[in-house]
């Protein structure tokens, strides 16, 4: 260390500051010497780093939305502009007597006509399907009324409970009726016809 202190005056100010920072040489008064200023002061313990949630998901979602919106809206906008500029709106004209217009010919815009022709179903088809649904419901109502009438007749006539065919041994039912009649005769003492 003594050799280094003898070299102190020979060092220039830049080299001396470097050696002081590196801890190779000590300052004049180690106890009272202020720390060497390097321009950047790091406070490791006093300033805490703020932990913030990541914005990765938000940025990714926003970028995806912009990408897919422009992927869909740009071509659709160009298609709509082309259809309206080139094809244009339909004009109302007289229809010949022997000609029956197709359902898509009633729409004014070219895009509406395309949807009515290739995507939507014809009104006649919708009408026929509605008629079929109404017919099926009417048939169900008829069957329900018939079932109600059958149940009422079975109740009035004291008939067997099954109005559909089930192979049943009738002798057991008749034996049960005989047993009930004999039990009532024994209890009352009179013969029941």
From TrEMBL:
Record carries keyword Transit peptide: yes
Compartmental location: Mitochondrion inner membrane
Keyword Transport listed: yes
Membrane-topology descriptor: Single-pass membrane protein
Pfam families membership: NDUF_B5 (PF09781)
Main localization category: mitochondrion
Subunit record text: Complex I is composed of 45 different subunits.
Family: Belongs to the complex I NDUFB5 subunit family.
Name under which the protein is recorded: NADH dehydrogenase [ubiquinone] 1 beta subcomplex subunit 5, mitochondrial
Organism: Littorina saxatilis
